[in-house]
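User:
Hi there, any thoughts?
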Amino acid sequence: MIRVLLIDDDIALSTLICEYLKQEGFIVAMETDGVAGVAAALRGEHDIVVLDVMMPLMNGVEVLREIRLYSRIPVLMLTARGDEIDRILGLEMGADDYVPKPCSPRELTARLRAILRRHNHVDQRIDAFGNHIVTGMLSMNLGERSATWRGQPLVLTSTEFSLLAELARNVGRVVEKQALSEQALGRPLTRFDRNIDVHISSMRQKLIHPDPNKTVILTVRGIGYQLLREDG
């Protein structure tokens, strides 16, 4: 059974979410402040974290920062509707996805399952490549969901790994943002959704080409992204 940690100081909403998730077969634990939330997330007892941004004492972004120092557990952020700054900052800090509040428990459940599918699922198409994708300076082990860049371990969030794997499968070809969203996020791209863009920006900071005049991931304006071929 999937173990969810909900960190949110809104007790009424949290109770509603907890009851719905339990009805859907999840095991749910709840913390109402950031300090206790960090401690619970790092105990290794949960499969995914649902984290509210707006909390007193220690806000959600600070909680996420602390979690990411020690753990790659998937994190879904709850953000204020229309507050793009919170969403982008959360994604840049390593969140896997976000849901604007107020949200429906059904949507939250769907997002949780989509994140966990891509986090735990070994894509069946890996048979076409074997368990590994190697292109230039990038090597990805799809079964273990690990990667190296220029021979060094590449630390990626679950979402970043899925995005990079999709680009690597199509190295040298442009992948449309809609396809990236469906394959890596498990949902269609919505209007004004910058989720993909922020994750790509974060990945670029990790995939540094030895030649400062070269980029690894090319933006094709109005279409999508392309992982460029390298001769190593």
Notes: Helices lie at 11-23, 34-41, 60-70, 84-92, 105-120, 158-169, 177-185, 195-206. Residues 121-129 have pLDDT under 50 and may be disordered.
